[in-house]
Amino acid sequence: SRQLCHLAWSFAVLTSGPSPLLYHVGKEFASRPDDDHVPQDISTFAWALATVALHDKELMESISKQTMLKLSEFGPQDLSITAWAFAKLLTEDRQPLITAIGKQSLMNLDTFSGRNLANLSWAFATSQQRDLDLSEALVKHCSARIHEFGPQELPIALWSFAASGYPCQPIFDVAAEQAIKSLHGMDVSHICNVLWSFARAGARNEELFEVFGEE
C-alpha cells in the first residue's frame, strides 16, 4: 500500500494530468484490504488524484469508505488534505465525508497548522457546505494564529471566508497587517485573491489597498 501511495504521489508531482498508469495504480490501491491502509496513505492518494484531476467515481468511493473507517485516526494534515481533494474534484457524494471530516476536525483544531486551517476552510467554501460550529471555530483559530499564515496560506484562507458568506470580520481585522508583511512572497493570483476577499467581505483597509496597489 505504501509503495502504491509513493507511486501515485510521484505521478502527481511529475505529470500535468491523469494517466492510464495512475488509474491502474489507483485500482490496485483500492483493491487492497482496508487494514493495509493508514491515514497518511489514504490522504496522499486522494491528494494525488485531485492534483491531476483524475475523476473516477469508483476510486473516490473507495477512498471515501477507507477514510470513514479510519477517520478517528486521521491527523490534521490527513483531514485537511482529504477534504481539499474531495472538494477540488467536486465528487458528487462528497458531502457526507466532508461533513464527517469537519466534525472530526472541530475536536482538535488547535493542533492544525496554518496550512491545514487554510485547506480545510477552502474545502468547505468550495463544497458550499454549511457547518456553523466549524465556521465559527475556524474564524476564531485563524484570527488568533494569523501569524502562521504565509503568502500562500493567507490568500486561500481569506478567499474561503469571503466566499462562504459566514460572518468573518475578526479575521479581516487582523489579516491586513499579515498580508502586507507577506506581500513580497505573493504572486499575482495571491494578490488578486487578497484584494477580492477584502472587497467581498466589505472589510475596507486603506493601507492594504494602497500598498497592494503599488505592486
Task: List descriptors.
globular, 215 residues, mainly alpha
What can you see in these coordinates?
The chain starts with a helix and ends with a helix. The chain has 12 helices and no strands. The protein is mostly helical and 215 residues long. Helix 5 packs parallel to helix 7, helix 7 runs parallel beside helix 9 and helix 9 runs parallel beside helix 11. Helix content is 70%, strand content 0%. The model has no long low-confidence stretch (mean pLDDT 90).
How are the SSEs ordered, and which strands pair?
Elements: H1 2-14, H2 20-31, H3 39-51, H4 57-69, H5 76-88, H6 94-106, H7 114-127, H8 132-144, H9 153-164, H10 169-182, H11 188-200, H12 206-213
Helix pairs in contact: 1-2, 1-3, 3-4, 3-5, 5-6, 5-7, 6-7, 7-8, 7-9, 8-10, 9-11, 10-12
Structure described in brief:
By secondary structure, the protein is an all-alpha fold.
**Strand/helix succession:** HHHHHHHHHHHH
- Low-confidence segments: none
- Give the rounded overall mean pLDDT: 90
Oligomeric state, counting identical vs distinct chains: single chain
Q: What is the distance, rounded to the nearest whole angstrom, between the alpha carbons of the first and last residues? A: 47 Å
